[in-house]
Design a protein that fits this description.
- With about 500 residues, the chain is α/β, with parallel strands linked by helices.
- The protein has 18 helices and eleven strands.
Length: about 500
């Protein structure tokens, strides 16, 4: 099977070829290896491969499984493969190997997926771009020199370029939806707790983080969720396994009441300016949904965007401080001596100075926002919003400048972190970190399902995704809606490069 033929299919399409005997698992595997080796030299999506082990594992894939030996990649963050490196995008963990597989890896394999390697992520998954200093930066397949977004940027590059039809990804503040928007993919963030993080974690970032995938078809996303969802025995969320995600795509959703917003309530306080292309994309989705028989109104929730950003960043700081302590424990290296990036070290120092009172106050606002969105969804089944303020930024455009990194180094001086927090540095961090992407954190804090749909091409030739948020627990309805939208003429996938 030639690579150019291989990458024309989604994961289910490849599995069907295997099941009909039109190609063998070995032929599909070889096509994926050839594609990864050829494209990764310039795209840098994959930080390490495991072809020999993957080929052995592929022989164990039952041909009656939904993915029947289809290649995939996992993210180099949280998704442990027992006995193999997992670096979280950091040089500090370059020699660390977890002892056992994460549950998502086990379930993905049981569904027939073959893990070929691991994809690039920013250090500790912290940014909406993927530019770790420990690894080459993945390129956006649509245009050299542009970012695929983050933190699942490597997975997005791999899928958009055709290396694999589906790649595992995670989302703690937009890390599935932002890369999906920048790379012209479908990116679905399930409801909180739907996909467990066991056995290494009960929850991450107080439940804001959820794992799933980036795909080139809605049906691949639905089929994967069918097999990886459901609580683990020791998990914090009593959410039983649910079926019917794939079957739901066979019918159009009932007529829905849908709200549309340009997201001013989230971005205005940060000085966010939405580009003309993003506005066009949102309007396109609104018109398309109206033409499909849904009732569409322009309306925004009553969520306080400034409070939401402050709440998100406060927990972001606190959790990073704890994460760095965990890295220290795993490696036996003191936090002060860890080989980490200046911005990571600075944010960790700020987090270490947070008071428990301030952390808890920030966490309580999550519940305020969740209640406000619950009230909003009593009237509306879905909310349409931007994913980001514009198309993919250039690589380096959003990473802290050398001057900013030197300023961050001052946080090593005793007493300075506490003074910086009192002086309003948190607000400055919020503006720097979220100004370009203030629209995605809401669903992580409230736990709602949310997705990015590829619905527009900007004048600069880069894709623009549009975000759809659903009622908490309404994952099946959101996938059903995406399946119907996928049939619209404005829906466009991928960016195959050679």
């Amino acid at each position: 099977m030639h690579f150019n033929d291989y990458r024309q299919f989604d994961a289910i399409g490849l599995a069907e070829l295997i099941q009909r005997g039109e190609v063998s698992q070995n032929e599909v595997f070889a096509a994926a290896v050839n594609g990864i080796e050829a494209l990764n030299q310039s795209l840098h999506a994959v930080v390490r491969t495991r072809f020999a082990k993957a080929q052995q594992e592929s022989q164990q894939c039952p041909q009656d499984s939904v993915f029947a030996g289809v290649p995939t990649l996992s993210k180099d963050l949280l998704m442990a493969i027992g006995g193999e490196p997992l670096t979280f995008g950091s040089a500090a963990l370059s020699a660390w190997c977890p002892s056992e597989d994460s549950l998502i890896i086990r379930r993905a394999r049981a569904a027939g997926l073959v893990v070929m390697g691991q994809t690039a992520t920013p250090e500790m998954g912290l940014m909406g771009i993927t530019e770790p200093k420990a690894y080459p930066h993945p390129q956006n397949p649509w245009r050299e020199g542009y970012s695929p977004g983050g933190s699942s940027g490597g997975s997005a590059t791999a899928v958009a370029s055709g290396m694999v039809p589906i790649a595992l990804a995670g989302d703690g503040g937009g890390s599935i939806r932002i890369p999906a928007s920048y790379c012209g993919l479908f990116g679905f963030k399930p409801s909180r707790g739907r996909v467990p993080l066991a056995p290494h974690h009960g929850e991450v970032w107080q439940g804001a983080v959820i794992e799933h995938a980036l795909t080139r078809s809605v049906r691949d996303s639905a089929a994967l969720l069918e097999h990886i969802n459901g609580m683990s025995p020791a998990g914090p969320y009593p959410i039983p396994r649910e079926t019917g995600y794939l079957a739901a795509l066979t019918a159009a959703p009932r007529p829905l009441r849908i709200a549309v917003s340009m997201g001013d309530f989230l971005g205005q306080g940060l000085g966010t300016r939405v580009s003309a292309d993003v506005k066009t994309a949102v309007e396109k989705v609104a018109k398309a949904l109206e033409s499909m028989g849904h009732a569409v109104e322009w309306c925004s929730p009553s969520v306080d965007g400034d409070a939401l950003a402050d709440s998100y960043l406060t927990l972001y700081l606190g959790h990073l401080a704890a994460d760095l302590q965990w890295v220290s424990q795993q490696t036996g290296v003191a936090v002060s001596r860890l080989d980490i990036e200046p911005s990571t070290r600075a944010i960790g120092r700020l987090g270490a100075r947070l008071l428990a009172r301030d952390y808890e106050t920030a966490k309580r606002y999550w519940h305020v926002a969740a209640e406000q969105m619950s009230q909003f969804h009593q009237r509306y089944d879905a909310l349409i919003m931007p994913v980001a303020a514009g198309t993919a930024p250039r690589i380096g455009e959003l990473y802290p400048s050398p001057a900013r990194e030197r300023l961050m180094s001052l946080l090593a001086i005793p007493g300075v972190p506490a003074l910086a927090l009192k002086a309003g540095l948190l607000k400055r961090l919020a503006t720097d970190a979220l100004q370009y992407t203030p629209f995605t954190q809401l669903a992580n804090l409230t736990g709602q399902p949310a997705m990015s749909v590829p619905f527009h091409m900007a004048e600069n030739g880069l894709p623009v995704g549009v975000q759809v948020l659903g009622r908490l627990g309404d994952d099946k309805l959101m996938l059903q809606l995406a399946g119907a939208m996928e049939q619209h003429e404005n829906w466009r996938y991928g960016a195959f490069t050679s």
